[in-house]
Known about the structure:
- By secondary structure, the protein is an alpha/beta fold.
- It has a single domain (14-256), classed as Bira Bifunctional Protein, Domain 2 (BirA Bifunctional Protein, domain 2, 2-Layer Sandwich), CATH 3.30.930.
- The protein has helices at residues 25-40, 70-77, 112-128, 189-196, 210-224, 237-246, and strands at residues 14-17, 21-23, 48-54, 58-61, 82-85, 93-95, 98-105, 135-136, 157-158, 164-173, 176-184, 229-232.
- Strands 1, 2, 3, 7, 8, 9, 10, 11 and 12 form a 9-stranded mixed beta sheet that branches. Strands 5-4-6 form a 3-stranded mixed beta sheet, with helices on both faces.
- Strand 4, helix 2 (70-77) and strand 5 (82-85) form a beta-alpha-beta unit.
- Helix 1 packs across helix 6 (237-246) and helix 3 packs across helix 5.
- Mean pLDDT is 91; it is low at 1-11.
Amino acid sequence: MTLPTSCRSEHSRQGRLLPNLTLNGAEQMALDALLLKKCWTKEQNQPILRFYSWNRPSLSLGRNQQEIPDPWRSLSRAGELDLLRRPSGGGAVLHAGGLTYALVWPEAPRQKREAYLQVNRWITAGFATLGVSLNPGEAPAQAGASNCFARSTAADLVDRQGTKRIGSAQFWQHGHLLQHGEIPLTPPADLWHSVFGTDPPQWTPTAPDVSAVKRALISSFGTGLSNLAWIDQPLSSEERTSMQQEAERYRLGASAL
Length: 257
């Protein structure tokens, strides 16, 4: 099906939904950035949503996060995890046993906080259908936090016990927004402790099913975006090639270790 060239028409009610892709972390970050670029260059100017997983444990650092603690370097050298840098800001996030979402939103509110609040409402509505109650965090923002899940700001979502369930970050280009975030579902306790020195967030009694989470969020994001209908569209060969060409810029190689 041919997708509309612009999401700015009041009659446009379609967005692009990509299938789940399990790739290495650098490729995932390159793809998120590529999809945002395609939006602001008007190649594909409508909301884009995707959910993805990582082919091996990875630790992503925020765009402006400079400090790489020695234990993280050691874990990377030992092959326990990949180190990479996100195009977005925020603190370090361990991607293992979780689900990552990414939304490219061409007409997001220009106020960063308001954009977070709106996306959080959609995520909250989706989890509510699964019987999970979430609310924004209350801690003040802190640039370059070593552990994203150690603090819960208004950009994040916590459960009734105050446990952080979703951590999100933004990247803006030419007034267009990429917001992506991590939903830890079954994080490996040993690796989490090795990275952050704490226990991972646990679900009681069990974590929501990953497929159920995706279905709920696809529906709630579509409803929130003016009852938008998602059209499945996989990566083109050109997009895949561009992603692979750009991936190296997000990988923290030997020089960083």
